[in-house]
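Notes to self after the call with IL:
- keep both proteins in one doc
- input above output, always
- annotate only the second one for now

Protein 1:
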Amino acid sequence: MKRRGAREATMDMMTELLEAVSADVAARRIPGAVLAITDNGSLIDFQTVGTLDPHGARPMPGDAIFRVYSMTKVFTALATLLMVADNRLRLADPVTRWLPYFTGTRVEDSGALRPPTRPLLVEDLMRQTAGIGGGYHTSANIKPYYEQAELRKYDHKAELPTLDDVVRKMARQPLATDPGTVWEYGMAMDVLGRILELADNRPLDGIIEQRVCRPLGLRDTGFSVPAEDMDRVAEPFVTPPGLVTHRERPPWLSAGSGGYSTAIDFAKLLCAIASDHDGQLAIPALGPITRQLFTDQIGPLAGGGPDYIPGPGYGFSYGLHVPSNDPTWAALDPNAQTVGWLGRAATSFVHHIPSGVGVVLMTQCYGRAVHYRDQVRSIVARHQATSWI
């Protein structure tokens, strides 16, 4: 067997992707979208469809800026691993080394609070095994604590507390489980963001800019949108109450969900962490980091917790879904061969490991994020499976 020409296979895949999102534009589920396809470290196709916002006055531009929410975790994970390589911190560091106010952390256990069976580690924050809540489906046993403390994931709203204030408040809440025992998708990355600030002695936005965006050539990624670029911000048909676009650095630099970015920036990121046809990376120093990002870090914990977003067949690394290394869970989806992540407003990206093909989909639609992620996954898997003749 041999593989069909890369361009032919890519054209077919892009055609199906465009048909899928165009149907949703026609049905007025989304105003528009931007799609990018990468292949073994190179951007090979880039398309737009629909309009920038619900008013329909302006076609969707290729450089549209989107709220990427949880895809911010990818930038935070990269920055963390780069700082680990630079000996700024260790994944095995106890959280209390950097944030002493977590010393009194307790676990909620059948109505009682008790000490955890082991310390909370930086790695727990990275792989969402910290037992920290605050997500949209926080574990029932700690949900009342977070509601009373008015703690919830960053939502791109005005009048925000500072990152330090948020993390200190989190330190006063109990953990849902002992560290390292359950995948709890909450606000753990925000705790990590504060640790990065202390370890690198500068604000989180400066860390992401200097360690990730500038080396990778990401020009439109950050925690705010300059005034001169506000006319490039994509908007959904239905806007959550209080939604804003920050023109200046917000007080809460959310390492878990505060980012803005573009399809072209995420395509560049994919090209940076994916090797070319000869197995070489554009930035060789990212080799060990890519291996960590592409390796399942939770094993048999897959499928646990109240909101297991990766889905059947997939595990989790440091900010990305990856093929599970747990045989039982992996067997639930033999086509689970991608790495990637998604954001609450339906931004997503996947990289198909065997073929080296990646897809970025950027749109803004609340309530259908997993739908679009799964749609991209299935289209990529199908076209890569049929690209051999």
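Protein 2 (the one to annotate):
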Amino acid sequence: MNASTKPSKVVVIGGGIFGVSTAVHLARLGIRTLLINDGPLANGASGRSLAWLNSARKRSDAYHRLRLAGMDRYRTLAAGHPDAPWLRFDGGLTWDADDADNEIAEVFDYERDLGYHAQWVAPEKIAAVTPGVDASAVTPQGAIFNPGEGWVDLPSLIAMLAEEFRALGGEIVTDVERATVDIEGGRVRGVITADGKRRDADAVLLAAGGDVPAIVAEAGLHIDDATPVALLVRTKPIRHPLKAVLNTPRVAIRRTPAGGFALDSAWSEEEVGVKPDGSYEVRQSTLERLLREASKVLEGNPTLEIEDYRVGPKPIPGDGEPVFGELPSIPGYFVAFSHSGATLGLIAGELLADEIGTGRRHPLLAEFRPERFGASRR
């Protein structure tokens, strides 16, 4: 986009954290913004995310810096909502399996060298650092406690941001069937919804989760896609002392605002079946085993009961790194496609809104442009 031209109207496609965050930041800049979604807000990946706020373990320097900026924005938000049950910074605890692939010592040194706050903890010392963990489940190599990590309940955050967006004059239209980005003369002209209604705009942000690569392909461009299935299980409320996010070999756990636990794991996601009609099949045995694995790592090994579960695509670009910014050769067409939606949600929305509003590319997004896939319009 032309850096000297502020768009008069922007359409955002997608009611997850990237879409809603960008929309509210655009509204704060005084830009008329319409957000459309194919169902209620947070009905996609944002509604089934563990939403662990972190930059733990190994990743590229650029990705680490962006995640740190993302965590910083959440800390600012938490300062303004100190009692919010949907945003907590009570640390994160992680350990690896007791096998040749255990990297705890190496990861600890790596994080310390980066200045990422990390503490190595022997199993018998964990109770003194963070409560609620069954020390007998921790492998002999010990665990890493990252005091600065936390979690967010994305549907709660999205609801709050949407309220502000509407108060600033933003418009939200839900239950809109799949929208097509309208391109004329080599640039974006708006969006056409399934009912044939055209909504003109100077710029469009596509933040439609796992559908982004397929929708971009309609414009003749390519984004590498490695999107798998996500399964998030939520338990009924239970009195328990756990506060930190747990990332263990067999299960990841965090609290929920209602007092239960949110659970996920790699193995349980691999057991989800896909039916011929595209719907998902989750076996009861998978759910029960995930509950048992969670109980094993929790102090007192409590009996856990399922409140509900959510299943669907987990957006992950082919190289694992985020995809943010304007598509090459199509002025006004922006995308947001990334696995780490929770950690990056606020900072990505801020930076994308600034780029859309000013035309200036932000250096924090320099390594995450869609053109890195060699995208060229056919």
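Annotation: The chain has two domains: 9-46+155-223+318-373, 92-147+228-313. The radius of gyration is 21 Å.
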